[in-house]
Write a structure and sequence with these properties.
The protein is an all-alpha fold. Helix content is 69%, strand content 2%. It is built from 7 helices and 2 strands, in the order αββαααααα. Helix 1 runs parallel beside helix 6. The N and C termini lie far apart (54 Å). The N terminus is likely disordered.
Length: 271
């Protein structure tokens, strides 16, 4: 049952702080969605639909901005150029350098896709950050991991790639029997896991907090001091929403920055 379902039910039952009923606390049910429609054998629920909308928004915006580029850019092209240059200069070139220019389109697309999926949590009727469903950041992390592994072995070969992944330079040989397994496990398994979980956990926690204080704003309303309690909870919900807007941008930034750092590691010269 979602937050927009819980609140009306509490209202109909007259469920408030001093009415004798318990607080309808949100939980994992906030992240469970029934299928909305089916295409063939694929059932689309709310997060899946929002992810498709986010992808179409990113594709549509950049297509409209750069389909007919002009020397003197219009407003839409100017916004597109600012967004593209931000990711290119502030993330890719800073992390990878000039050799990372060929990966800019992929990383720009990934940045805005993650950002728009996050922003869905504050859009009316959407009100859910898609990356709070673990499958979506896990899928993006898998794309980054495949790119990272592919570039590593393409540039260095099989033996050189393993050395790049597992054999740090400047380390005394006598500690390598401990360090090599750690580096192997970290680079091949831990990196994609933490990349996915970082994006998921922040959006999951933020959405749960906003839902909790939103429901509490209604629950705390009562004939006596409820207006004071409910208003305080509502102010917290608004403040958390504003803070969440910052976190949504930062999570997209961090995700692409880490992806760039992995690509930079794959492209660096052999030790």
């Amino acid at each position: 049952m979602s937050a927009d379902q819980l609140t009306p039910l509490a209202s109909e039952a007259g469920c408030h702080l001093f009415s004798g009923c318990g607080f309808p606390a949100p939980g994992l049910n906030e992240f469970q969605f029934e299928p909305i429609f089916t295409i063939g054998s694929v059932e689309f629920n709310k997060p899946m639909l929002l992810s498709v909308i986010a992808a179409l928004l990113v594709i549509g915006f950049f297509w409209a901005a750069f389909a007919r580029p002009k020397l003197l850019p219009g407003k839409l092209q100017l916004v597109g150029e600012i967004g593209y240059d931000f990711v290119k200069r502030s993330i890719v070139l800073e992390t990878i350098g000039k050799k990372g220019e060929k990966y800019v389109p992929m990383l720009v697309s990934m940045f805005f896709f993650v950002w728009i999926m996050n922003i869905m949590s504050v859009i009316p009727f959407a009100q859910f950050p898609v990356t709070a469903a673990i499958g979506f950041p896990a899928g993006l992390a898998a794309v980054v991991w495949v790119t990272y592994m592919g570039l590593t072995f393409k540039k260095h070969g099989f033996v050189g790639g393993l050395k790049n992944l597992c054999w740090p330079s400047g380390i005394p040989g006598w500690v390598m029997f401990i360090l090599v397994p750690i580096e192997f496990f970290s680079n091949i398994f831990v990196r994609p896991f933490t990349l996915a979980v970082r994006a998921f956990a922040n959006m999951f926690a933020g959405h749960l907090l906003i839902v909790m204080f939103s429901i509490a704003s209604w629950y705390l309303l009562s004939p006596s001091l409820g207006a004071l309690y409910g208003s305080a909870s509502f102010i917290v919900a608004v403040g958390l929403t504003g803070f969440e807007l910052l976190v949504q941008f930062l999570q997209a930034y961090i995700f692409v920055m880490l992806a760039s750092s992995y690509i930079a590691g794959a492209l660096e010269e052999a030790h």
